[in-house]
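Per your request, structure below.
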């Protein structure tokens, strides 16, 4: 594997099964993962965290096909949980019964890239009680 990985690859043809790859911190490898899972979990203690060998092979196909220079030794595998709303958009709203509570939730998957703006919006809602940004798409009432 190259000593320095200078790329960010993101391929996601169908918003699900096509994985993406990003360099790990300090260039020690590449994280390859599908964008999100396919199963709703009610209790994290009931999840089987054992790596699925079929999925590992499917994920290893990604660098073989798209990033052959990083198709090296498998370093580690992990199953992770994260929050996702049914429509895959996060929630930014006031609690319907307790208006002093501001909700910001469901950011896993794609929320990180919006963190600066979302932080500003949540701060404005908490301090000023309103924001000039249109947050109608993120209302809790859409469910």
């Amino acid at each position: 594997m190259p000593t320095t990985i200078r790329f960010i690859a993101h391929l996601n043809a169908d918003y699900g099964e096509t994985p993406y790859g990003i360099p790990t911190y300090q260039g020690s490898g590449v994280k390859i993962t599908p964008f999100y899972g396919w199963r709703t979990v009610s209790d994290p203690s009931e999840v089987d965290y054992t790596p699925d060998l079929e999925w590992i092979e499917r994920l290893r196909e990604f660098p073989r096909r798209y990033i052959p220079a990083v198709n090296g030794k498998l370093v580690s595998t992990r199953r992770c949980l994260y929050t996702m709303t049914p429509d895959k958009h996060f929630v930014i709203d006031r609690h319907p019964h307790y208006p002093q509570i501001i909700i910001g939730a469901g950011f896993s998957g794609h929320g990180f890239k919006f963190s600066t703006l979302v932080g500003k919006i949540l701060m404005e809602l908490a301090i000023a009680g309103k924001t000039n940004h249109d947050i109608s798409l993120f209302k809790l009432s859409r469910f």
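The mean pLDDT is 82.

Regards,
D.
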